[in-house]
């Protein structure tokens, strides 16, 4: 055996000479493996090798063989140590958990005779780390039967920032009944970590602290069987409330985790006479239940009164009497409604946020099945209720993830384990427990509220459900209805249960009538500045309720929502509803459905008088405008003089498909009109198109100024990412900034865009490719990314052509430019054609193409087919742009 866990030691031999000892240590780091001569030379002479390194190495090996014969073998590539090494044996024993035997091999500092040699530094550090871990494991084994406090005090002094030793010291002191010293030890390391590293104690040290706190007090709190996930903000708030208020009640729906939160807080509190849990779920007499658990005379305990809701009056009265009679008593209660006692502080326990819900599900699922496919289960359906999450996770023990996912369609039926209380066996039982405690009027209102999707205002609840405000407030108090801002909502699990008890045939009709009338009243306000933000918020909030109303009042509900969809750029939603309702509508609604779903313009739609008829084509599945769009738009301007919407639509049509000069007369009229009404949507669009017009006449600085002015009203209505289409405005600003040489601002503008629409992502990738080209570093990857994102998407030919242009620049090949010209050949969008021709002119060095592009920009075409001419030039030009 060769020993390197201390000074070099070879059984039966004394090795002289430092270089010889270093050679043996180097070989001992890889026993039984060939170490090449080149590696040995580099490691043994790291700074200045001998004049003849191979000969020097061979001489050193010969000396070693004389002093310790039989240990070193030759190999064509180098040398091998044929001996067992204590370091390798130590690692095997430590892995096997034989820490006492492993540590007995150590005689000092590892690789001591090679200290200072570069090759030894990393292996020595690794062995020392393994020694300290093994030492911690051995001490943990010795906790209880041995007094390890003195040893740990020495170790924490020698390793002042090594948390495992400090955690063991805290635990050892606590086990020895020295809780005060344990807490002082924790405080010392906590302060040192904060002062020297700016860090908080890790999980192991925090748990040791919590164990010390629990050990210090009397009480009957059950030890937790599982870890506590999330809720840090709730723990901190409740902890503070209990310290400042003598009565704190945790409220929330069944299964939300009130009891677990209360126990977590109670366990962490420093209470002189202990924390005592009093279970009231099955109690017939609250006072008797309390007295059976803890004597209150001359003590200062914390009472955790759990599940007060079914004995709420008695629990409230007793809490008030006890708090009055025992000045040092504190009460932490859990209930589905507040106790309503003077001095009570209430903390509403919310459902887990999605991130913590996913964490909890994964932790519980992997505990019952290590190979569970946790990511495929739609945890969001469980309302963030820990009980529901744990019930679903438990099913993975006997079911596949796909079967559990399918079961979530009947989430109320998920079953718990054998030891669960009957009221916690299923979610249905949890809600049934609360349902049985309701008065008949409360049950009636709760069942009727199941008609709402996404919640409702108080006015809607009272009018649709025919209830009064006191009953609604009572349901909020009892945690069955959630109050979120100004809206009242049911958790989905509660809504399903309530729907099963609904007995009101006319409710759905009342609901649909209420919401279609609400939408019709709010629709004109979408175009009135002072009321625009409120109207937008209404349509956003009532989306689910309006979806339900569409089935009963398709004509009215569809017409009321079209302008909102247009303002928000929700083409896909509009198209889906238009296709679904086309056969169930008539009149203007039917015509608009046809236009949006098919792209065909029905006769007389623009004369229907409905505001959305003037701009419905912007939501159409057909990316090109209707035939005769200019004539139709100009007719609207004549029929509605002074109407800013008519002027805007005509200006857009003229700019893209007609006379750019006419567009520059119409768009300022629209801008003035929108200013007068305060319509932010109209202001944002008018400024956006005026920016395009400024760029078209060769004024990029003016175009950027107008585009930036468009951002403000778009932001005010929450449409900066959507107007006039997803990412259009941000991309436009970035491209203009790049054209003017401000590349940092362009990058920042693109980085700020947060969209998931594939076409919008393609626009961003294309813009990044353009910015890179203008910077002088064409980006083939970005241009290719834009093309890939377009694949399978229905994209405007204008944009597809621009992507091909950037690909041509990035690759140096004229083929993508050729495809761009083919896309634009005879296209009705003259401005887009001009942009592509300008690139072709630059590529080919053609003044004729440049003149043709200028003519298109002004609306005066001078060349019959400039794209075909450009294609002919490309066929005869160089393969690279000029």
**SS class:** mainly alpha
Helix content: 55-70%
Strand order of the largest sheet: 7-8-9-6-10
Strand content: 5-15%
Envelope shape: flat
Radius of gyration: 38 Å
Q: Termini separation (Å)?
A: 76 Å
Structural features, described:
The longest helix is centred in the N-terminal third of the chain and has 25 residues, at 118-142. The radius of gyration is 38 Å and the shape is flat. Helix 29 (629-639) runs antiparallel to helix 30 (644-657), helix 36 (758-775) packs antiparallel against helix 37 and helix 39 runs antiparallel to helix 40 (830-844). The strands form 4 sheets. A 5-stranded parallel β-sheet has the order 7-8-9-6-10, with helices on both faces. A 3-stranded antiparallel β-sheet has the order 3-5-4. The chain has 42 helices and 13 strands. The protein is mainly alpha-helical. The model is unreliable at 416-420 (pLDDT under 50).
Please give a handful of descriptors for the protein shown:
882 residues; mainly alpha; five-stranded parallel β-sheet
Short description:
It contains 42 helices and 13 strands.
Architecture blueprint of SSEs:
Elements: E1 2-3, E2 9-10, H1 18-28, E3 35-36, H2 37-44, H3 53-67, E4 72-75, E5 78-81, H4 86-95, H5 99-104, H6 118-142, H7 149-158, H8 163-175, H9 179-197, H10 203-216, H11 232-244, E6 247-251, H12 258-268, E7 275-279, H13 286-293, E8 302-306, H14 312-325, E9 330-335, E10 344-348, H15 354-368, H16 386-395, H17 401-407, H18 427-436, H19 440-448, E11 456-457, H20 458-465, H21 469-477, E12 482-484, E13 487-489, H22 492-500, H23 507-522, H24 529-541, H25 543-550, H26 554-568, H27 571-581, H28 587-598, H29 629-639, H30 644-657, H31 660-677, H32 680-696, H33 700-716, H34 728-739, H35 743-751, H36 758-775, H37 780-790, H38 797-811, H39 815-824, H40 830-844, H41 847-858, H42 866-876
Parallel strand pairs: 6-9, 6-10, 7-8, 8-9
Antiparallel strand pairs: 1-2, 3-5, 4-5, 11-13, 12-13
Helix pairs in contact: 1-3, 7-8, 8-9, 8-10, 9-10, 11-12, 15-16, 19-21, 19-22, 20-23, 23-25, 23-26, 26-27, 26-28, 27-28, 29-30, 30-31, 30-32, 31-32, 32-33, 33-34, 34-35, 34-36, 35-36, 36-37, 36-38, 37-38, 38-39, 38-40, 39-40, 39-42, 40-41, 40-42
């Amino acid at each position: 055996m060769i020993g390197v866990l201390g000074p070099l030691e070879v059984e039966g031999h004394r090795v002289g000479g430092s270089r010889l000892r270093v050679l043996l240590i180097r070989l001992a780091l890889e026993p039984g493996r060939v170490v090449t001569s080149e590696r040995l030379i580099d490691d043994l002479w790291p700074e200045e090798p001998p004049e003849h390194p191979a000969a020097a190495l061979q001489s050193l090996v010969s000396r070693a063989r004389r002093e310790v014969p039989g240990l070193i073998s030759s190999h064509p590539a180098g040398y091998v140590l044929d001996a067992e090494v204590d370091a390798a044996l130590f690692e095997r024993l430590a892995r096997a958990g034989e820490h006492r035997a492993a540590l007995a091999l150590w005689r000092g500092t590892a690789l001591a005779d090679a200290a200072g040699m570069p090759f030894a530094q990393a292996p020595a550090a690794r062995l020392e780390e393994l020694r300290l871990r093994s030492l911690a494991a051995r001490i943990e084994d010795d906790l209880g039967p041995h007094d390890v406090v003195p040893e740990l005090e020495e170790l924490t002094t020698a390793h002042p920032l090594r948390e495992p030793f400090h955690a063991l010291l805290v635990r050892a002191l606590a086990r020895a009944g020295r809780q005060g010293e344990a807490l002082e030890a924790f405080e010392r390391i906590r302060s040192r970590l904060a002062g020297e590293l700016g860090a908080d104690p890790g999980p192991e040290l925090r748990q040791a602290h919590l164990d010390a706190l629990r050990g210090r007090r009397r009480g009957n709190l059950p030890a937790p069987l599982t870890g506590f996930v999330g809720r840090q903000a709730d723990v901190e708030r409740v902890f503070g409330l209990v310290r400042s208020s003598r009565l704190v009640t945790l409220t929330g729906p069944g299964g939300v985790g009130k009891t677990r939160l209360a126990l977590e807080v109670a366990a962490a509190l420093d209470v002189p006479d202990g924390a005592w849990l009093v279970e009231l779920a099955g109690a017939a007499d609250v006072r008797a239940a309390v007295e059976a658990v803890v004597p209150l005379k001359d003590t200062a305990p914390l009472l955790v009164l759990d599940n007060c809701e079914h004995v709420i009056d008695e629990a409230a009265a007793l809490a008030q009497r006890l708090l009055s009679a025992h000045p040092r008593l504190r009460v932490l209660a859990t209930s589905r409604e507040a106790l309503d006692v003077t001095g009570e502080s209430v903390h509403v326990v919310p459902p887990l946020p999605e991130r913590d819900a996913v964490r909890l599900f994964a932790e519980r699922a992997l505990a019952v099945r290590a190979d569970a496919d946790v990511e495929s289960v739609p945890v969001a359906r469980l309302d963030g209720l820990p009980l529901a999450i744990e019930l679903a996770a438990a099913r993975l023990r006997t079911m596949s993830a796909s079967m559990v996912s399918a079961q979530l369609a009947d989430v109320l039926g998920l079953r718990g384990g054998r030891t669960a209380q009957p009221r916690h066996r299923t979610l249905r039982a949890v809600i049934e427990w609360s349902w049985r405690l309701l008065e008949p009027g409360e049950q009636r209102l709760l069942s009727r509220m199941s008609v709402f999707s996404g919640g409702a205002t108080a006015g809607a609840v009272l009018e649709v459900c025919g209830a009064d405000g006191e009953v609604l407030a009572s349901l909020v108090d009892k945690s069955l209805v959630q109050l979120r801002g100004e809206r009242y909502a049911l958790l989905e699990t509660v809504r399903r249960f309530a729907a099963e008890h609904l007995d009101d045939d006319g409710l759905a009709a009342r609901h649909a009538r209420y919401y279609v009338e609400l939408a019709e009243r709010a629709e004109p306000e979408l175009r009135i500045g002072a009321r625009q933000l409120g109207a937008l918020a209404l349509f956003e909030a009532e989306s689910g309720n309006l979806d339900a109303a569409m089935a009963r009042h398709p004509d009215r509900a569809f017409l009321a929502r079209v302008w909102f969809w247009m303002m928000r750029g929700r083409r896909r939603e509009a198209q889906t509803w238009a296709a679904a309702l086309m056969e169930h509508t008539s009149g203007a609604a039917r015509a608009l459905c046809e236009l949006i779903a098919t792209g065909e313009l029905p006769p007389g739609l623009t004369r229907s008088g409905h505001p959305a008829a003037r701009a419905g084509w912007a939501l159409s599945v057909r990316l090109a405008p209707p035939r005769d769009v200019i004539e139709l738009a100009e007719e609207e301007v004549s029929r509605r003089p002074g109407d800013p919407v008519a002027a805007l639509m005509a200006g857009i049509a003229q700019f893209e498909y007609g006379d750019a000069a006419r567009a520059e007369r119409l768009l300022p009229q629209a801008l003035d009109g929108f200013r007068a009404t305060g319509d932010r949507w109209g202001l944002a669009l008018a400024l956006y198109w005026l920016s395009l017009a400024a760029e078209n006449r060769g004024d990029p600085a003016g175009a950027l100024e107008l585009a930036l002015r468009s951002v403000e009203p778009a932001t005010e209505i929450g449409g900066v990412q959507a107007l006039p289409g997803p990412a259009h405005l941000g991309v436009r600003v970035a491209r203009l900034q790049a054209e003017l040489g401000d590349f940092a601002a362009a990058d920042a503008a693109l980085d700020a865009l947060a969209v998931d629409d594939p076409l919008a992502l393609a626009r961003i990738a294309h813009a990044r490719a353009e910015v890179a080209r203008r910077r002088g570093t064409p980006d083939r990857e970005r241009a290719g990314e834009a093309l890939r994102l377009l694949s399978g998407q229905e994209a405007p030919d204008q944009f597809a052509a621009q992507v091909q242009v950037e690909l041509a620049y990035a690759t140096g090949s004229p083929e993508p430019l050729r495809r761009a010209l083919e896309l634009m050949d005879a296209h009705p969008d003259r401005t887009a054609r001009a942009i592509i021709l300008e690139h072709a002119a630059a590529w080919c060095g053609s003044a004729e193409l440049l003149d043709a592009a200028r003519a298109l920009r002004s609306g005066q075409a001078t060349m019959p087919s400039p794209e075909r001419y450009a294609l002919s030039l490309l066929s005869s030009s160089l393969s690279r742009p000029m």
